[in-house]
Amino acid sequence: MTTSIHVTALDSVVNVNSLFTLAVFIGLTWNPYDSSNVLVDSGSSCWPNSKIAEDLIKFHVYSFSSFLFSSLVALAIKQALKISKSHSLNVHFSFRGTQIFEHVDVNKTLLRVGMMVSAAGSVAGCIFLMLALINVVQIKVGPLSCGSGHAYAAIIPLVILVPLALLIYVCVGFYAFTR
Description:
Elements: H1 3-29, H2 50-87, E1 89-93, E2 100-104, H3 108-141, H4 149-178
Helix pairs in contact: 1-2, 1-3, 2-3, 3-4
């Protein structure tokens, strides 16, 4: 089993999760009820209620927790691969001598389970981040319960594209593990 591919995949998971975690932190520092950034009049009946703001904070925290969990699992697997590499390393040169493939004896099932758990954490983080963004739209443009066309125009692509991308991510991940 080529471990350099797995280490590269784990590095990518950690890097993407870091970017999403940064986005969550920026979202948590933002004041949702800043009247200069809201398109809804504060006196109108369509002013977002406090439940939407509470959900916004909850989904940000859930998203942060999921991304952090996923990153820590990925880093633990990567560290385990590095430790096992130092104990039993088999180096194979390609025919041209330009590439080196490192093979390490690892428990294939445990590696796959760990990578799938890490991927599940990333998927959960993306779902919670999407839900937080839906609440941001409702605070800025107006709640969905008021029938705001602008809110629906912002949220409909979000709830179509994000789950579609996650479905592709999961399918490609499962396909990669069956090969």
